[in-house]
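User: Some background: our group keeps a shared notebook of sequences we're curious about, and every so often someone picks one and asks for a predicted structure to add to the entry. Today it's my turn. The entry only has the sequence so far, pasted here. Could you supply the structure so I can complete it?
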Amino acid sequence: MRGLKNKRVLITGGASGIGAATAARFLEEGSAVCVLDRDAEARARIQQELPALSGVLGADVGSLPQVQAAVGEAIRMMGGLDVVVNNAGISIRHNFLDITPEEWDKVLAVNLTGVFYIAQIAARHMWGQGSGVILQTASTNGIMGYPYYADYNATKAGVIELTKSMALELAPKVRVCAVAPGYVLTPMQRAEYTDAMLEEVNRKIPLRRHARPEEIAALFAFLACDDAAFITGQVFTCDGGEIAGGLASR
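Assistant: Of course. Here's the predicted structure to add to the notebook entry:
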């Protein structure tokens, strides 16, 4: 893709799943890449799998001091920052009536407050240099209703509206978009399915399968490249047609 060579890219939640696939894709495009992840085992694994990474940083995105230190270190390692993929997130499956205040706070801290922290610090740097792209991981959960994930759904809807507001305020220097994946078959997700469960979920999706992490990574790469230079403030679903027919919460 045009314009990604030598771009300096930071990916949060970058040591596994969609984040790791996105790191690999940007490296293939010739970008310099730092990943940030709070999981020490995942960080050690991604460092072995992608030795070309410019840095592998540990931080909890819900902690402002840790985010400030990590983003500053990424900028130091790469000599600047051109693209951020704001991907870190968690979910806890619970009946709405059983969500505790502690669980609510935990999900919001990572999925929404953490996105805000990363985005604001990155945007200040990009505004100063006169250019940049911030891409955020939303979800079809932020567009359609899903049972048992009220806290997660609320955060992803928040990411969508945050993205639109940022795009308006940061134009014309910084572009901001969100990607809203549907079902993605990461290794962690596959481990939670029996074969029968996987088949049942696939049946709901018009393309009859889950997305591969690499397919979400490809969309992030396109939105960061020069061919997407006139795209900002948009949310792109990548869900195999899942929400087109209102299938998401059946």
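Suggested note for the entry: Strands lie at 8-12, 32-36, 55-57, 83-86, 132-137, 174-181, 235-238. The two ends are 37 Å apart (CA to CA).
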